[in-house]
Amino acid sequence: MAKLLVMREGIVEQTVQLTKERMSVGRHKHNDIVLAHGAVSGEHAIITTILDDSFLEDLQSTNGTFVNGHRIGKHFLQNKDVIKMAKYHLEFIADGIRPLAAHAATVPAMPAPPPAPPAEAAQLPLGHIEVLNGSNAGKTLSLTKAVTSLGRPGVQVVVIARSAEGYSAAHVEGANSPLLNGAPLARQPQRLKAGDVLDLSGIQMAFRLA
């Protein structure tokens, strides 16, 4: 799990684990990461984490957000990046790349066609998911299960079902809809074709057939 070392005048004041998909940074006490300094905006920035990737976004703060000396609007964080907000320096520490398979799980209830009998399923070309961007770019996940989930439970989850007719995807959790080829993915199963691209909060994944 990635973390931030929050420093002021060279002293580490706190270590924050990025345990939530969306974590706010600012002066006000309701933020996930509170930076008590007058030059820090009340709601200064947001850090969004999907799979192993974290993105920093400035919320139009008064004095700006800087990464490695450059003012940013939105920035893909990499290991050892140093974020500057007023008198604070926050060092981003990545924990290495975890296999994408660690984020796949079987979902017990899913509005999709029932799984095919083993003999029929065996005749299907095997489907794969390939991550197209971020630190996991190039990694693949074989869709060997009857139902595979991608995303974060309670936040945004897509399920991919394997049946005798092929593969289908549906949005089953989360207020914000993921995208399929740039359009919102429905909660009813949509058939997948080779080359289709899923987008989960900025992480793009292509559906491939062996």
From TrEMBL:
Q: Which SMART domains match?
A: FHA (SM00240)
Q: Which residues form the FHA domain?
A: 23-72
One Pfam family here:
FHA
Tell me the superkingdom of the source: Bacteria
The protein's name: FHA domain-containing protein
Q: Which species expresses this protein natively?
A: Pseudoduganella guangdongensis
